[in-house]
Design a protein that fits this description.
Blueprint (H helix, E strand, L loop, with lengths): L2 H23 L2 H17 L9 H53 L1
Helix pairs in contact: 1-2, 1-3, 2-3
């Protein structure tokens, strides 16, 4: 696929792939970002593409969408632990700071 063919393919198919990914993500901006990333990956492989790129493009974009959703689920599952860790660290820092100030004024 040469540069002109890629540009034409991009213009003709971006909306289709965005809509396909929107059905997965339910987020227009995220869908556009994923399809943009897909076309970036496709651009890097454009010289190797000898047949219709639709299947490759759809597979890449779906995988990116599913990976993003998995990542969000992992963040959601571990968020309470992260917040606890941050809160716990903050409390320790506050206690240490209080001790330093108390020691300073006692001396």
């Amino acid at each position: 696929m040469n540069n002109q063919e890629f540009e034409t393919y991009y213009k003709n198919n971006f909306g289709y792939f965005r809509n396909c990914i929107f059905n997965i993500t339910k987020d227009k901006q995220l869908s556009e970002d994923i399809v943009q990333d897909t076309f970036e990956k496709l651009w890097l492989k454009k010289d190797d593409i000898r047949t219709n790129a639709n299947n490759l493009c759809l597979t890449i974009s779906k995988n990116l969408a599913y990976n993003h959703i998995k990542h969000l689920n992992i963040e959601k599952d571990y968020k309470p632990y992260i917040n606890y860790s941050i809160d716990h660290q903050y409390c320790l820092e506050q206690k240490e700071f209080k001790k330093i100030i108390e020691n300073h004024y006692q001396n």
